[in-house]
UniProtKB/TrEMBL annotation:
The gene is speH. Is synthesized initially as an inactive proenzyme. Formation of the active enzyme involves a self-maturation process in which the active site pyruvoyl group is generated from an internal serine residue via an autocatalytic post-translational modification. Two non-identical subunits are generated from the proenzyme in this reaction, and the pyruvate is formed at the N-terminus of the alpha chain, which is derived from the carboxyl end of the proenzyme. It is an enzyme of class 4 (lyase). Keywords: Autocatalytic cleavage, Decarboxylase, Lyase, Polyamine biosynthesis, Pyruvate, S-adenosyl-L-methionine, Schiff base, Spermidine biosynthesis, Zymogen. Pathway: Amine and polyamine biosynthesis; S-adenosylmethioninamine biosynthesis; S-adenosylmethioninamine from S-adenosyl-L-methionine: step 1/1. InterPro entries: AdoMetDC_fam_prok (IPR003826), S-AdoMet_deCO2ase_core (IPR016067), S-AdoMet_deCOase_pro-enz (IPR017716). PANTHER family: S-ADENOSYLMETHIONINE DECARBOXYLASE PROENZYME (PTHR33866). Heterotetramer of two alpha and two beta chains arranged as a dimer of alpha/beta heterodimers. The active site is at S64, H69, C84. The record marks E63, S64 as: Cleavage (non-hydrolytic). Belongs to the prokaryotic AdoMetDC family. Type 1 subfamily. GO terms for molecular function: adenosylmethionine decarboxylase activity. The lineage of its organism: Archaea, Methanobacteriati, Thermoplasmatota, Thermoplasmata, Thermoplasmatales. This is S-adenosylmethionine decarboxylase proenzyme.
Length: 130
């Protein structure tokens, strides 16, 4: 039986209120709350403020990471949520962000990571994969 070791959500959120995402000080509490809502374990976080507006950030999690970039002038937030362990934790964090940021549309992919682990896949020449 194959069991993925992690889940990776990659998302673009469109139509987000620019006031919510213009500053690192504004969006960082939202990210921190999403981590708590997802029952994830934060090790550390770093946020960066762009001038005149926009922010980027990453939270290192015991389960992996959550990162974001904002473009307030386009109402865009890009997210990357990767967790191992309980897969529903990533979903809870993602759904929290959707509920708070209220995008008018989203594009996202949810990938299972490490799903071939039981097959003992060996790559003879890793350079051939690039």
């Amino acid at each position: 039986m194959k069991v993925a070791v992690g889940v990776h959500i990659i998302a673009d959120l469109y139509g987000v209120d620019s006031e919510l995402i213009s500053s690192a000080d504004g969006i960082s509490p939202i990210i921190e709350s999403a981590i708590k809502e997802g029952n994830l374990t934060e090790i550390s976080s770093q946020y960066y403020q762009f001038r005149p507006m926009g922010a980027s950030g990453i939270a290192l999690l015991a389960e992996s990471h959550l990162s974001f970039h904002t473009w307030p002038e386009h109402g865009l937030v890009t997210l990357d949520i990767y967790t191992c362990g309980e897969h529903s934790n990533a979903d809870r964090a993602f759904n929290y962000l959707l509920n708070v940021l209220h995008p008018t549309s989203i594009e996202y992919k949810k990938l299972e990571r490490g799903s071939k682990i039981e097959e003992n896949v060996k790559i003879e020449n890793p350079q051939m994969m690039l």
